[in-house]
Amino acid sequence: MELLTNLFVVLHLLGLAAIVGSAVFVARGVPTPALVWGARAQILTGLLLVGLNEAGDDPVNHTKIGVKLLVALGVAACAEIAAGRERRGQGNPNLVHAAGGLAVLNTLVAVLWT
Question: What is the pLDDT of residue 58?
Answer without folding.
Answer: 81
